[in-house]
Amino acid sequence: MALRKDFLWGGATAANQCEGGYLEGNKGLSTVDVIPAGRDRVSVMKGKMKMLECNDQYFYPSHEAIDFYHRYKEDISLFAEMGFKCYRLSIAWTRIFPNGDDAVPNEEGLKFYENVFDECLKYGIEPLVTITHFDVPLHLVKTIGSWRSRKMIDYYERLCETIFTRYKDKVKYWLTFNEINMLLHLPFGSSGLVFEKGENEEAVKYQAAHYQLVASAKATEIARKINPEFKIGCMLAGASTYPYTCAPEDVWKAMERDREHYFFVDVQSRGEYPNYAKKMFERMNIKLKMEDGDEELLKKNTVDFVSFSYYGSRLTSADPEVNTQTAANLFPTLRNPYLKTSEWGWQIDPLGLRITLNALYDRYQKPLFIVENGLGAVDTPDENGHIEDDYRIEYLREHIVAFKAAVEEDGVDLLGYTTWGCIDLVSSSSGQMSKRYGFIYVDKDDDGNGTMKRSKKKSFYWYKKVISSNGEDLE
Ligand code: BG6
Question: Which residues form the active site (predicted)?
Answer without folding.
Answer: 372 (nucleophile)
